Amino acid sequence: MKKLILPVILLTVLLAGCATVDLNAPIPAFETGIDPSAWAKIPAGAFLSGQEAEPATIDYDYEMMVTDVTVSQYTAFLTESLASGGVKSGEFNGKKAIVGFYPGDEFRAVKHEEKIEAGDWILIPLEDPASRFSFDGSVFAPKPGYENHPMTNVTWFGARAYCLAQGGRLPTELEWEKAARGTDGRAFPWGEEIPLNVANFYSSRDPFEDMSSFGSRTSPVGFFNGQTYGHYVTLSNASPYGLYDMAGNVWQWTGNVYAGMHYRFLRGGSKDTYDMDLRAWVRNNATPTYFSPGVGFRCAR
Amino acid sequence: MHFLQTRFNYLFKTTKGLILVAITMIGLETALFGMLSGPMAEFGVRDWVIKNLGMQIVQAEREGRIIILYHSIAMGVVAIETYMITSLVRMKPFYVSAVRVLITVGYILTMIFGMGFAYWGHNWALHGLYITGLSLIFFAGTLLTIALWPWNKEYSQPNREYASIKGFDMERAAFFTTALATLLSVLFGAVPGSYFGNGFQTFLAENIIRLPEKSLMEFAVIGHLHIMLALICIMITLIIGRWLDFKGIMHKIAMPLMILGAIVLSLGVWGVVTPLEPIAHMVIYVGATPSMLAALLLLIWSWDKLIRQGTAQFKKPNILQKLAALTDDPLRFGPTWQMLFMNFTTSGIGIFMAVKLDEIFRVWPAREERIELTGHWHVLSAIVATIILLYYGDMIGLKGKIRKLYGWSIIILSDIAFASVTIFEMKRLSVSEAAQQPLVNTVMLLMDLGLGLLLVLLAVTLIWRLLDLFRNKGRWVEEVDHELSQEVK
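YS: structure for the whole thing
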């Protein structure tokens, strides 16, 4: 009997690893009071960029969205664009998707570079169980509780299409970084330290995660603004220019298309990453067709 | 005074004492700084450690801290391998003493002052002592390479059971070649280290892996970390072969392969900073093949030996009796088993990645690829550590049930952890991000359980050795005059 104890424990642990995740588990709803349609102005001037805080300059004023684009905002865009023919239903890798036109990138045949040709590219997948919207064939709608959460499962093409439709564009990496950390070279939008209740990151114990079952989920945009929700006290993660969630919650697509590579860069870390990835200079990258429940975006203009 | 002097002499003047000190230093460092990441960070242990030990953690310096941490642990491992070589391979007593003094002072300076600089503020005197430590280790390596000079007739190999050409000892030549290649490969880290260090820039190779254009210095760093680990692995294979008294036809084939592998592998890695960079990977594959084949020959030979020895009493042993004989002594079976297991967790994964790079891995975001990259070399490093611990178990004379418990615990616990790391690295092949949490929880639990219990086992062993030092006729007394070459079997 004693000999069986260890194998039984191991078997139980292994079986637990095969458990399924309830992607539609109830999610708490909170009103953050932060307006997702607001834009913040970032003035022209010098700032400190990168891990070594080297001097850099952006010599023009620009604006960036105060929060990530929400599911409500993006589904409204999709419904409107589908009706107007700006986007259409299609397929990507044999699966249903919403696609839109992209004029293509110059191909230089650098090692590992892949062609991004002009044509229709995936904006969002339609049948991914992790998507936070519903679609009845003509109208897109947020899943209940996710209206003010960041739009996720959106590709770089999907992010770009949204920003263009709003008269904007995706921010460059440099614009993104300045908006996130201001001019003084700080590591995080709010400073140097990262307490658990200032952002949504891996195992940050926010009300939206349960590491024993579904793991970490997105939080409403602007959730960490100093408010107290029930018993959960947040600290404000606003950047020096008033942008929220520039660290954590979702990785954010940036707009640069670099010569000789098809990858697009993401900034900010996400609900699924440790705090080190939330540092303002950390870069992630992926193919422009990549989508994930941990990737979103915001626009600049 | 006599009490202290005899213990000091044991710990710093004998092979087994020096190895014990180095294992202890690495164990302490791993235990302490392991509390700053992974689950320990999640449990809040990291914050407690930082606060109570007065560490000064600057966000922008994380990569620099990690680089110093890796180096200081690696220097301890290099010191252990050096102690083993100087005790197993014939060389003049002067070289044995000089190499040991230099490398001991070197790795201790590196560890203490490197970590002091990295985690407790930037006192540049500490950084200077850290660099001094590294330099002393390089100097020790230079002397070791000279001591291993294989063309010295004094060290010819008269026994025809071992690989030799007209008395020229091929095994010694393999040790020499690996040591020399290691010395030269150090430069690929030292030069860019000085370059980036003077500009106070740090980066981890896994973070720049996808950039299409890399500078020569960046290529050098990537090459350095790969070749150093590979050469540490080749050296531990040679050491284990010597301990087990590798000989016969397999030895005669394996030693030239070891030499060829070390040379071609090194040339391939050094090639990344030359115009040959586009074909460097191909050269590396060519070089890795003979090295791995040589390790396979050692495995075949040693398993055959264990089986033959363990079934000597049977006229015609059946498969179960052979299996029982093979696995009877985990300390002698374990090192080569770990080498085999490495293929599932490191080599196999590496080859699979290389073959499917653009098709699978480069479709994943860089962060996922980074997890795979860091995971596979953490496992490889840890496998080397377990092989050292298995050999150490034999060195300190573990017998009977304790020997089996110690050996099998290391093998099983580490392999559970390494298999879990491998599943974690490759999870995206089977599970989406949204659905991964149960799998992540399971493999993380198994990883932590395996590595945690392994550290507990190590702690128990080290505490026992510490208590033993207080005994006048403890085991340490027996070990004072023992050289590893006397225990080759």
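YS: worth flagging: Strands of chain B lie at 164-165, 168-169.
IM: good catch. Also Chain B touches chain A at residues 41-42, 58-60, 62-63, 200-203, 207, 210-213, 278, 357-358, 362-367, 432-443, 445-446 (CB under 8 Å).
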